[in-house]
Design goal:
Number of strands: 3
Distance between the termini: 22 Å
Strand content: 15-25%
Strand order of the largest sheet: 1-3-2
Order of helices and strands: EHEEH
Helix content: 25-40%
Structural class: alpha+beta
Largest sheet: 3 strands, antiparallel
Length: about 60
């Protein structure tokens, strides 16, 4: 997902993660990409909260071993 850097702390408070998420700078100034692993059972519940925290472009895909 992508989020403005100024909203990152708020987003991270909403985000349960196996460990700390990966945060990468985007080419657009002031924006970052956030990647994390969360339990698939809570994905549908957490997406509205992530959007409220400013997340855009949320992509979900299965984790393959």
């Amino acid at each position: 997902m992508n989020v403005q850097r100024k909203k990152l702390d708020s987003l991270l408070r909403q985000l349960p993660a196996l460990r700390d998420p990966t945060i990468s700078q985007l080419s657009q100034e002031g924006w970052v990409a956030v990647e994390t692993i969360i339990d698939e059972r809570i994905v549908r519940e957490i997406i509205p909260a992530l959007k409220d925290a400013g997340a855009e472009g949320i992509i979900e895909y299965p984790l393959n071993k």
